[in-house]
Amino acid sequence: MNSKKRYLNIALIAIVFLLLFVANNSLGSYRVRILNLCAIYTVLGLSLNLINGFTGLFSLGHAGFIAIGAYTTALLTMTEKVKIQNFFMEPLIAPFNNLSVPFIVALIIAGLLSALIAVLIGAPALRLKGDYLAIVTLGFGEIIRIVITNLQSLTNGALGLRGIPHNTNLYWSFGIAIVTIIILLSLINSSYGRALKAIREDEIAAESMGISLFKHKVIGFAIGAFFAGVGGGLLGNLMGTIDPNMFKFSLTFNILLIIVIGGMGSVTGTVISAFVVTILGEVLRFLDMEKQFDFGIFSFTGIPGLRMVIFSIILMIIVLFFRHGIMGTKEFSWKSIFKYVNKKPLEEGGKK
Amino acid sequence: MALLKVENATMQFGGLTAVKDFNLEINQGEIVSLIGPNGAGKTTAFNMITNVYTPTNGKIIFNDTNITGMRQDIITKTGIARTFQNIRLFKDLSVLDNVLIANHVHIKSNFMEAMFKLPRYRQEEKEMVKKSLDLLEELGLEDLKNEKASSLPYGKQRKLEIARALATNPKLLLLDEPAAGMNPTETDELTAFVKEIKEKFKLSIFMIEHHMNMVMTLSDRIQVFEYGITIAEGTPSDIQNDKKVIDAYLGVSEDD
Question: Are residues B101 and A207, on separate chains, in Cβ contact within 8 Å?
């Protein structure tokens, strides 16, 4: 069963890459970009879900970690010439001014830096719980953005960075999304993952079972921040330009939307909902355009921002009727597929 | 030498003294019970031992180590496990996961090894799963291993909570009203169960309980609390005939 599952997983990944190859050659650049965004939002959604859904820490500072990742990757991949063009107000400080590393190395450094900042923020903040933690992380997220706005000689301040190499393509974004899924699943199903879930379920019981709350919360928070940084790096190198305004609270909100719709504590749910929310966001873009819609019975004019109204309504419906999101805490597994196909009760009968 | 020794532990919440000069000695292999009317401070005494509350005064010595004010998870690591008055299972997780989580306290691999499934972690995980399954089998919960903890009937949830505490390899087990909400038959079953695990796992047990049958059958010694003060101590038969205890439970008639 186990080796069979492994082959199926490998086959699935192969099929994904085959489809990517087809998509890369047949779809226009607009659609390829949306697919890229889907994969990047998967990474970002998973990273926030590890913190919010699996460890039960209500963190709202995710945009800050994404910003750190995006800026670090951008600074490490831009060519020297582009950097000089960008930093015309104040020159870029050493060693970044003539440092250029391969994309993957830049992403890893971005992730590590994000994780480091998360540990520094987490040390005081993770002593708080619930709403208080939410407010403090929200504050730290904003602080990161404001620091970036003011570090003229490192981040080019409010002008942002332009001409970032377009390193992100479908293979990178989906490759990293798949690696993220594999690593997170492996973590979640390990003893440490179980400890994180125990903290989510009942902190008092978890502590009395010998789980060091602080250490495990920091681990969860830092790993989440690591992948947020990597996701941010992919995002920056997809967009080509970044500025501090991209990393406002609304970015955190978008990712929160994804994990709430997908299900707090479900990797599968996050993946599905990252695709659904990203694609829906583009499909519904027509609502923002100022033109007349005629549905026969009623007609209305599109207003900029109407798209978000629809999203809010969807969110309300989800919260009211599907409290636990699309998947709850359930996961996709081959076992359940076989069970469904064979319609025979399996001996082990697990729902997973 | 006593396994657990509590010396003059006092807990004050502002002006309220919940427990005053609490002294206790538990030897290897003993079952000691703490009884007393509601609000006497029994759970507070428990919480001082596991450092949910750090005692305002006094010392707690376990296995020759002073554990006063130590972090709860470290106390668990040194060998004290507890259950809760109102069951605190990891409700959404499976029975097996609940027990596996308790094994986490002794893990040697770090999270990187676990995340990338390196050999040492794989070996440890295999051992943990085997140990947990063995434990569940010994306690008669193996059929339920994939059930959600919250879907278990009440009696089994109590049992699982004890199983989870046992999975941390304790030397001393603290049971906070294990028979709360149970009918007489269930209480008798639990009494037998506690006796059984005490022998099997070579435990010392410190227990808070209101079911007198259970207390009298199991205990080697009993300590009685009223308003945070120890009013009596001794063997079950001593306690049954102690005038102060009878007064505390039944009240004092005005003629006396």
Answer: no
Q: What number is the ipTM of this complex?
A: 0.90
- Mean per-residue pLDDT for B10-25? 90
Task: Write out the E strands in chain B.
Answer: 4-13, 16-26, 31-35, 57-62, 65-66, 80-82, 172-176, 204-208, 221-226, 229-234
Contacts of A341 by beta carbon, 8 Å cutoff, 6+ apart? none
pTM: 0.90
Q: Which residue has the tokens 């830096």?
A: A113
Scanning A314-343 for CB atoms below 8 A from B yields 329
For residue range A139-153, list pLDDT tens digits in order.
Answer: 999 999 999 999 988
Determine the Cα–Cα distance for residues A5 and A332; give it in Å rounded to an integer: 12
Distances (CA, A) of A272 to A201, A235, A258, A268: 24, 19, 9, 6
**Test the B interface: residue of A112, A181, A191, A335 with most B CBs within 10 Å:** A191
| Residue from the list B71, B101, B121 with its beta carbon closest to the beta carbon of A209 | B101
Peptide bond into A95 cis (omega under 30): yes
Q: Cβ(A241)–Cβ(A78) under 8 Å? A: no
Under DSSP, the state recorded for B192 is: H
Which chain A residues are Cβ-neighbours of B165 within 8 angstroms?
209
Q: Measured between beta carbons, which residues in chain B are less than 8 angstroms from residue A47? A: none
Mind telling me how many Å the CA of A204 is from chain B's nearest CA? 8
Phi and psi based region of residue B17 (left: phi greater than 0; alpha: psi -120 to 50; beta: remaining): beta
Instruction: Find, among A304, A198, A310, A315, the residue nearest to A256 by Cα.
Output: A315
- In the block, which residue shows the tokens 């030897």? B27
Instruction: In whole angstroms, give the CA distance from residue B144 to residue B191.
Output: 22
